[in-house]
């Protein structure tokens, strides 16, 4: 196999509904034009994504003494919490936790917090979630008089969204060991003060 330059690899997931031509247009035409517009307008480009965390995620392989299977202590109750976040190329990061499903009303609330006291115009890149395209969201964006624009990724192309990698990295690394035991606390805190906003920007 090595002589044929064939190596063991973990495959990437690609939805069969994905349109390779639309992805190519985004990468070669749409996004480069958006970057040029942002530079001319003094705007910042953020990528937004949502993710969900459960208290019983799949466990990855690890090392242990021969004959002794490692044990990860988790909650016996199935709990979950959702997050929404936005990140840009300069490392600015905004996030909020919430319970329940994302809808237009909650998305508008998130956008209001995200735009609060933001000094520059923002081009926000999102996927095709129905909440992102709702009329109430369009009305809110229009009310900002050009301070915010929503730009949509091609369907079924999460690999084009850098924010996707924030949570895909966190789930198999930080989440199982450090957060699963605290899920009940996070969930109760989120229900009391939903949504909870986290902002880290430079």
Topology:
Blueprint: H1 20-41, E1 44-54, E2 80-87, E3 93-98, H2 104-115, E4 122-126, H3 135-143, E5 148-152, H4 162-170, H5 174-178, H6 183-192, E6 196-200
Parallel strand pairs: 1-4, 4-5
Antiparallel strand pairs: 1-2, 2-3, 3-6
Helix pairs in contact: 2-3
How would you describe what is shown here?
With 202 residues, the protein is an alpha/beta fold. The chain has one domain (20-55, 76-200): Ribonuclease H-like superfamily/Ribonuclease H (Nucleotidyltransferase, domain 5). The protein is 33% helix and 20% strand. It contains six helices and six strands; from the N terminus they run αβββαβαβαααβ. The protein has helices at residues 20-41, 104-115, 135-143, 162-170, 174-178, 183-192; strands at residues 44-54, 80-87, 93-98, 122-126, 148-152, 196-200. A six-stranded mixed sheet has the order 5-4-1-2-3-6, with helices on both faces. α2 packs parallel to α3. The protein is globular, with a radius of gyration of 20 Å. Mean pLDDT is 83; it is low at 174-194.
